Amino acid sequence: MRSSEEVVREAYRLAEGDVLDGDGFRALFAEDGTFNDVPNAQTFRGEQIPQALAGLASVFPDIHRELLDVHVLGDVVAVELRIQGTHLGAFPTPIGDIRPTGNRIDVPAADLWYLRAGKVVKFNCYNAANVLLAQIGAAPDFRAAIEAAR
Description:
150 residues; alpha+beta; Nuclear Transport Factor 2, Chain: A; 5 helices; Ketosteroid isomerase-like protein; isomerase activity; isomerase; SnoaL-like
């Protein structure tokens, strides 16, 4: 059986834009495993997991994760990383798509991977979504938020 670190490093390899193997990524998870995009309050299970990877890669086809630090504490793997890529696809929002800008992203993130018997049972991704949005030119609209609160 592979070590927890080996499983996690394989997950990152399979999620790279030039590899993008959603089914292989999903196979690293336990049957009831979850992928939690914490900043966006989204949880993916089962066949939603490869769809989540494909969705992000459709926006940033050259997506890459630069692993800065990897720490293993038994069956828990903590990773500090940077999510990088080029905004070449439509970025979906609740009110419509943000058209591709060609802008590069370099987003700080931290991931916590929880494993059991060599399978991922929970993957919590904490990415700086505000940094990503600013880098693709979608800065927050503070004026509208202030006016809406009045």
